[in-house]
Design a protein that fits this description.
Length: 330
């Protein structure tokens, strides 16, 4: 673990810059994951924009805590930065549950437009009320079903699966509506639970199935794309307030620049990752289009519930931007 952290150290610091401030950046997955690569790139950009005054040290594999623990650590000044999925962050800013609604984004292009929209800007601003500064959103890729029972071709194939998911109300309600028995295990416990058979299925981005070697303990992968896995990049306000205005601006700009890098690697690596997982023995399938109607109908009430319990004005803005994004990408 220590070697990973050292390897993620992005100094790029000018000679003699002994007073450089170190930003401890906590994240839950391996450094080889696209999220780890994005954090590496973010550190390079930050170093360039601040002439080495700020350096980013990434701590992968939940070394400094899982997603939820990292939020608390940033609020308390224990770590300076973190990245938490919108599913995990919705416990802090409820409106991010709009990004967790099932089957809401038609494709990567729609999701990317929504991640850069005005609605997201307003959601990020809400983090200020809980001692965090939201910078931008990055992405893990769409989540897919994996299991050891058989291919998922329709809603009946989901019935009774003991599936690991995130501790998020939208996720839990959506999966339960599909007949799944959802298990909100902490991410670091997932591999062992799959290996021992305590659970028999998972739902997660393909990039994480690869970087965490879940293919060793899961046989079937269904390209369901049921949830997006956008993630909030944030800074603890205690640390933020110590920075100059120029340094704050550099972090915001660096987050946006790294977002473009993140989107590129998510998009370009998708097919190669799927081929890799197939080579490792996973059987890959897609749900036939004629069977998707029943699946989407089952989760439709969950979507309406989400819209009914968060900021109504943000729901209106989000829905308007989503319609525009769909029209622009068709």
């Amino acid at each position: 673990m220590a070697a990973c952290a050292v390897g993620a150290l992005l100094s790029y610091v000018a000679v003699g810059s002994a007073a450089a401030q170190t930003i401890k950046f906590s994240y839950p997955v391996a450094n080889s994951n696209p999220m780890g690569q994005t954090i590496d790139r973010f550190g390079e950009i930050v170093a360039e924009k601040t002439a080495g005054a700020l350096r980013v040290q990434g701590f992968p594999d939940a070394q400094l805590g899982n997603e939820i623990q990292t939020v608390s650590s940033a609020q308390g000044g224990i770590v300076e930065m973190g990245v938490t999925s919108t599913a995990g962050f919705a416990g802090t800013v409820a409106e991010f549950d709009l990004f967790n609604m099932p089957f809401i984004f038609a494709n990567d292009r729609v999701l990317e437009r929504m991640m850069r929209g005005k609605a997201v800007g307003q959601m990020l601003e809400k983090a200020g009320a809980v001692n965090l500064v939201g910078l931008c959103l990055w992405d893990y890729g769409f989540r897919n079903f994996t299991n050891n029972r058989g291919p998922i071709n329709g809603i009946d194939d989901l019935s009774g699966l003991r599936m690991r998911t995130i501790q998020n109300r939208v996720y839990l309600d959506s999966l339960a509506a599909l007949g799944v028995n959802p298990n909100p295990l902490p991410f670091p416990e997932t591999y062992g639970a799959l290996e021992t058979g305590a659970i028999d299925s998972n739902e997660i981005a393909n990039s994480v199935t690869r970087s965490t070697s879940f293919y060793e303990v899961q046989k079937y992968l269904t390209e369901s794309r049921h949830f997006a896995t956008a993630a909030v990049v944030y800074v603890g306000k205690r640390f933020w307030d110590q920075l100059s205005a120029d340094q704050q601006g550099a972090l915001r700009a660096s987050c946006d620049e790294a977002a473009a890098f993140n989107r590129e690697i998510i998009t370009t690596s998708g097919a190669e990752t799927l081929a890799y997982l197939a080579e490792k023995g996973m059987q890959v399938n897609e749900i036939p289009a004629e069977n998707m109607a029943a699946i989407k109908a089952a989760v439709a009430p969950v979507i309406e519930q989400v819209k009914g319990r968060v900021d109504a004005d943000l729901v209106t803005l989000f829905s308007s931007e989503l319609a525009a994004a769909e029209a622009q990408t068709n």
